[in-house]
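Here is one chain, start to finish.
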Amino acid sequence: MEQDYRATERSQIRGAQSIAFRVSPYIISAGSVVGSKELEGPLGKRFDMANKDDLFGAKTWEEAESKMQREACVLALGKAHMKPEEVRYLYGGDLLRQGIATSMGIEALHIPMFGLYGACSTSGEALALSAMAVAAGYGEQMLAVTSSHFGSAEKEFRFPLGYASQRPLSAHWTVTGSGAFLVGTEKSHVRISGVTVGKIVDYGLKDSQNMGACMAPAAMDTILRNLQDFERSVEDYDRIITGDLGYVGQEILLDLLYKKGYDIQSRHQDCGILIFDQEKQDTHAGGSGCGCAAVTLAAYILPKIIKGEWKRVLFVPTGALMSTVSFNEGESVPGIAHGIVLEHC
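Its structure:
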């Protein structure tokens, strides 16, 4: 396929699905808020805020998730010494019906918002849109935020916690957490140099308790497209980090890419594997949820890029696009993944 290099002063269309930013947006600051299980995990000391009370003082799981989003936004703004009114637009989303965790969480900030739904890939979608808006000159600061909560996700997609259902080994543990990112023109040590917008990939899998398998083909598709659109090799990235494929999905992704002629095993990491200790915390296939990739990016990935340990990272949040309606009607679980190119500067 012939490459498409249409360009403006601020950006350049690359290939079929990617954009390279000539005027690079920067991640100015980030905030991360997590619950008790995440605090006890391998990354526990890296998060900005953790609460051993997973209700965060609220009456419901949903209200707790909204409080996490608000706190994450306030943290990101505070680190940049900015006020909410200085943010042009907010891009946010969650796993709940009609995005209520976001709409109720950021209501008090009075920032014009776009509500998003990309399942667990929402942090990638929010960062991509924020970067595109900044690069296009539609505002100097954008806020990208997303969240998930184990309690609210179990109630929404599986069983209420009181049901005490048996979880299969392929099941993920939804991360209780929220990550917020201030994206803007102010120079920092991390710039978003490009994005690869994912497309829906459906291999016909119907097991909602095996989301890693459902999402892995989409991750493979986006990683391949990114390498092709930017004419890069695997070695051009210090790390290729997926969102929440977990142990099952990681194995499938590595196998799919290897069959395509790409070996990323030595450079691949997955947020769903990084955030929990599989054996000590009994999280089966690993972490998942919108908050999984978001808080891992904020607390683990960005600091390594800021320090210069990693010069270029391809961050690929992944999502399983299902609902309780589609699952109960016997539909398959399509996947999607968005690629964000992060570079040290």
